[in-house]
Each structure stands twice: as structure tokens, then as C-alpha cells.
Protein 1
Amino acid sequence: MNNTADVIIIGSGIVGGSAAYYMAKKGLKVLVLEKDMIGHGASSRNGAGVRISGRVDSEFGIARVAIREIWPTLSEELEVDTEYEKPGSFLMAVKEEQMAALHRSCERALKQEIEAEVIDGDELRRRCPYISEKVVGAVWYPEDGFANPMKTTLGYYKQGRKLGVRYVTGEEAVEIRKCRGRARQVVTAAGNIYEADKIIVAAGFESRALMKTVGIHLPFLERIDECLITEPQPPMFRYRLSCVDGNFYGHQTQHGSFIFGGNTNMERYEDTYAGQPRNTASSVSDKARNAALFVPALRGAKIVRYWAGWLDSTIDRLPVIQEIPEVPGLISACGFSGHGFALGPGMGRLLTEMVTGEPLCADISAFQYDRFHAEGCFGPRTNYPKV
Ligand SMILES: Cc1cc2nc3c(=O)[nH]c(=O)nc-3n(C[C@H](O)[C@H](O)[C@H](O)COP(=O)(O)OP(=O)(O)OC[C@H]3O[C@@H](n4cnc5c(N)ncnc54)[C@H](O)[C@@H]3O)c2cc1C
């Protein structure tokens, strides 16, 4: 088998898969290396949120491309029902002192020309009667929505393959090698060597270890995020819900189940089984409790499944998207910090433009890796907005 390509992409998540698809559409020969199954990382484990709200200005460009230009017609493009819907979302507060944060979030959105409106608890329950009396207010974002993560990621895979993308699964990249000063080869655990003009690292949380093989240090936090899904429920509402402190988000899916996720705010603790992240008994019950508190009608709902995934989080919660100046030919596309599923389709287009040399659809100057050096220490930066 010929092991050369124009572009090697490491990782078959939504970022790697969408990039492979858009590059193949441009006629490039693309090879995707995936250490496990297709979409095995965060792209198949996430909470399905596709939101344009709550983005810092630097990330808003990619979010705008993804959410306004690509998601609305993606099902037709991929010939798969991605279950993308844009019914709008409520960012909620449960304490009066959280209302100021809602107003800040709303103001930022309006500045970015996103429709947004702060409403009180009574108005929220008028629009969505299922919400608990405990919720004191919300911001309404009509452009937000959700999609099916697995179907979307597999959609890119299937269409990419039709266009000639070669996927090699069960092939773990362990080293990137330079030839004559440029990134050129990818060595795998099985001892295979693949070669290309461009190498894209889209390996989610595990990108850090790969970048280190060519001396590039990306400060990632080792964090797990979790979701659960209920038995199908009678149709209640289509909105996406989230809470201002990040402890809760979710929506009702097309087949009736509710999917919920959120931070636990408990100690940072990672539990793994055979290298895979997994939930803990207390974190699952935390999410179940939140679901019943926010939507009391779900009090008796049975949980059918729960899961965990690595959160691809950098220390400033912004991605690293850049052709690395010290290693020409090597492109970093990782660190989406818990909000990369929604950006994935936009990332595919952007990475294709980076490879072909076309004008970029979004400004990526804020995502260079050397921002972590600029302050001379790895203390967390404060440019990520607190909603
Ligand atoms: C529980 C949870 C909930 C989330 N909720 C949301 C949400 O609601 N909305 C949102 O926008 N985002 C959400 N996210 C974040 C989002 O899922 C990620 O930002 C996004 O999926 C990242 O996509 P990716 O393609 O960069 O990485 P991944 O999907 O992680 O893909 C990386 C791939 O690389 C492979 N890989 C790793 N190392 C190697 C190697 N050495 N060689 C070969 N292959 C390798 C992995 O197996 C994996 O398949 C959530 C994440 C989690 C964990």
C-alpha cells in the first residue's frame, strides 16, 4: 500500500474528518490515521450543542462560518441526517447574583450582532413551562441549536471516503519526523511510516503528546467531561438549556431522550479504564439531580446510558490553530476546549484553506501556540470571558 499523500491528518474526529472531506473535494490526496475507531474521541462523546452564543470575539469568526454558513445545509451536503436543529437556547440563572453574568453574556452577543434577550423567570416559564420555579432568569439565544455528534462525524467519514480519502483505523501515530527541516513523516505504533507535504494534528486531547515529538509544547489540562441520556420521554420542548455556571446543559433529542451534561465543580479527578475516561458514581448523580431540578417533569426519568470523554482543554480555553513556524508543514488543529463540535465543520473549511493557500474564512491570529510563552509562565490567561 502506498503510504504517501498530500496531507496526513492524525485523528478522525469532527475536525480531522471534516478537513479530510473538504480537502478531498479540492482534489487533494488525504490520508487519515486514527488510533481507534472513527470518531472515537470527544466528537462522538459530546453534549451535541451547536451554539454561536458565548464565544469570545477571536473564536466568533469560526463559529459564524460553521453555524451560519455550513451547519444549516450540512445534512444535504453529507447525505446524512445530522439532526441539526436551531430552536434556540436559554442560558439560565438560579441565583439573583448570577443575573449580572446573564446581562454581560447578552451584551457581548449583541455586540457580535447575535440576537439575544434577557428575560425573567416568569417569562422563561411562559415560553417553556417545563422549567423549574427555581430558575430566576435567562438569556434567550435564538440562533443556538444542537445536532447528532456521531451521525455528523460519520457523515464526514462516509462522504470523505467516497471522494477518495484513505482512512487507516487502529493506527496510532507516535512520532512526527522532520526531513530537511520540514514535517514530513508520521511513524505509528505498528512501525509504519507515512509521508506527506502537510501533517495536521487533530488528535484532540492527545495532540499534546504528538506535538511534543517535534519539540512543540501545548499546555493542555487533563480533564474529563461527562454526559448522560434518559429513556425517551413524551415531547416537551425543543430548546437547548444551559446554566450560567456551566454545571448543566442539555436538550430533548428527536427520538425523545434527553441528553444532559455539565461540569460537576467537584475536585478535578480523572478516572480511566483501559485508557478510556469514565464517569464516577457521584458525577453521574450530580447530572441526574440537576436534570430533575431544572426540569421537574424529569424526576422519574430513567437514565439509560452515561459516558465520559477527554476535554480537549488548553489553559486559556482557546484552540491552537496554526502552521507551526518552527516546523513548516506541521499544522496544529486542537485544543477546542469543550466547544469544538459546533466549530468542526468551519474548521474543516479553514484547514483546507490553510493547506491550499486560499484566503482564510476566519482570523486565526489569536490561536498561535506561542501565546503560551508570551507571559513567561503557564499561569492561566484571563482572556476567556466569564459568562
Ligand atoms: C462530554 C463532552 C461534552 C462536550 N459537549 C460539547 C458540546 O455540547 N458542544 C461542542 O461544541 N463541543 C462539545 N465538546 C467538545 C467537543 O466534543 C470537542 O471539542 C470536539 O469533538 C473536538 O474534535 P476533534 O476532532 O478535535 O477531537 P476528537 O473528537 O477528540 O478526535 C481526535 C481523534 O484523534 C484520535 N487520536 C488521538 N491520538 C491519536 C494518535 N496518536 N494517533 C491516531 N489517532 C489519534 C482519537 O482516537 C480521536 O478519534 C464536548 C466534549 C466532551 C468530552
Protein 2
Amino acid sequence: MKTILITGASTGFGRALATEALNRGHQVALAVRNPESVADLVAQYPGKAFAIEFDLTKPADAELAVKETLEQFGRLDVLINNAGYGLLAALEESTDEQLARNLETNFTGPFRLIRAVLPVMRAQHSGHVITMSAIAAYANHPGFAVYGGAKAALDATCDAASQEAAPLGIKFTQVIPGPFRTDFIGRSLDHGARIPDYEGTVGKFGGFLSKMDGKQPGDPAKAASAILDLLDAEKPPSRLLIGGYAHTIFAKKLASMEAEMNAWKEKGQSTDFSAGA
Ligand SMILES: NC(=O)c1ccc[n+]([C@@H]2O[C@H](COP(=O)([O-])OP(=O)(O)OC[C@H]3O[C@@H](n4cnc5c(N)ncnc54)[C@H](OP(=O)(O)O)[C@@H]3O)[C@@H](O)[C@H]2O)c1
């Protein structure tokens, strides 16, 4: 049995992860903006499920969530940095307020939470930080300049932190989903003001998202099961792609990046000092 802190446990991946973790016998701290949204889980799993009022945009909440988890359960084995939301807007359509809130939610807030759990995991010489990234961090779409940028920043942060923490017994995994059937495209998606010149790019992608809402190929319950299986893995992956869509897009991106690197290798490699210089 592990003690797991999950952010954004109200709906979607977070709720599926919380439900699956509780079914498997783990203790779960449910960090949510509105504790009422998980009252059913707390009632269903007395002593095992515990709600914490938590908002990623409030800097003090990270330390508080860790403190409350330790007070309730006495330890913290796994952080699932799940909460987040998308912003559909061309770069120049986003406002400062939208940019700040999205970065705070998708990058700075999760960063603070990782920083808050590390001392606990260092003292235990064990722990696992699992972060919900997005395929947009690796192969982005028009309209996700802010969202994909925030997720890519978190990816690079986890890449560094995982190398810092590995000798201390702490594992990191970034989970990379394509479209999954959650509230992500519906109630959670923020929108920028529309500039007609972006209809053919951002507007088209927005139309694709709207049409996909409710029909996304990814099943959050199956994702939760695959993600929680990682807790038993001797060597969990640093990145886990989930869903067929993410696999296809990621493979295409890798192939096109490799082809471009090779096509321009001579030019790019010519920039080192000559040997012995
Ligand atoms: N579904 C997909 O297709 C997809 C694809 C790639 C990546 N992801 C990532 O998966 C993660 C979970 O999203 P989801 O798909 O499960 O969508 P969701 O059903 O909309 O869930 C989003 C969760 O994040 C919480 N949240 C949003 N802002 C918050 C804040 N400031 N502080 C604390 N919690 C906050 C929401 O809480 P409230 O209930 O209070 O709003 C909700 O619990 C996100 O990081 C998302 O970027 C999803």
C-alpha cells in the first residue's frame, strides 16, 4: 500500500486515478479546488481517501498540501501531478491574464508541488513523481502555443529533476496523453479572443477539438490502470505515451526531427572550433 497525493481528482484522469488507486488499496490525498467534488470518494473509502482544498495558482497551497498529507497519513510515496487545463488561442490572441494563469496552473504550480514533496522523498530515500504532460509538449498544434509551451517547460524541468533525484532513490515519470474522454475539451478549455486571420489554423484546430469532444479515443479508466501499474515497476519509464494517437504523432515527430537534423547536419556541425584550436 502506498500513500498517493493526486491533484485535480474531481474529474477526468484525476478521478479515474483516485478511484483506481483506492480500489487497489492505496491511501489517497485528493487535492482539489472544491472538496465537495470528491465527497463521494471520501465517504466511500473512510480513512483511505482524504480531501485537501488546493489551488495550483495559490503559492502557499503546495507546502500545505504536503503538510496535510503527512499529518493525515504519516508518509507520502507518490505525487501525481495531474491537474491542468488547456487554452485555445493563437499566440497573439492570448491575454497577459490568460498567459499567467495557464503557466501558473500547468507549470509553476506543479513545479512548486514537486519542490515541496522532494524533502519528504529524500528523507525516505524513495518516492515517485508522476506528471501528466501532453502530446502538445512534443508535437504541438496551432492554438496551443501557451498550453503546449507550459507543458514543454514542465517536461524539461522533470527531465532535470529526475537526474538530480535518481541517486536519492526518487523516480520520475511523465505521462504523455493524446485525446482522452475527460472534461479537458469541454468545461475546462479556456478560449482566446478570435482574430479572423487565424480561422484557417487555430479555428480549424478548435473545430477538430469540438467535433472530438465526447468521442476521444482514450479511456481514462484504462489510462489510470496503466499509470498505477508503474508503481510496481522496478524501473518505470521516464516517459509513458498513452493512447494510440499519442504514439502515432510522437513517432512522426521523432522521424521528422531526425530527418531534418540529418539534412542540416553538415551546416550545423561546421560551427565547432577546429580540432586543437
Ligand atoms: N484529456 C486529454 O485529452 C488530455 C490530453 C493531454 C493532457 N491532458 C492533461 O491531463 C490532466 C488532467 O486533465 P483531464 O483531461 O482529466 O481534464 P479535466 O477532467 O478537465 O480535469 C482537470 C482537473 O484539473 C483541475 N484544475 C484545473 N485548474 C486547477 C487549479 N488552478 N488548481 C487545482 N486544480 C485545477 C480541475 O479542477 P476543477 O474540477 O476544480 O475544475 C480538474 O480536477 C491535465 O494536466 C491535462 O493537461 C489531458
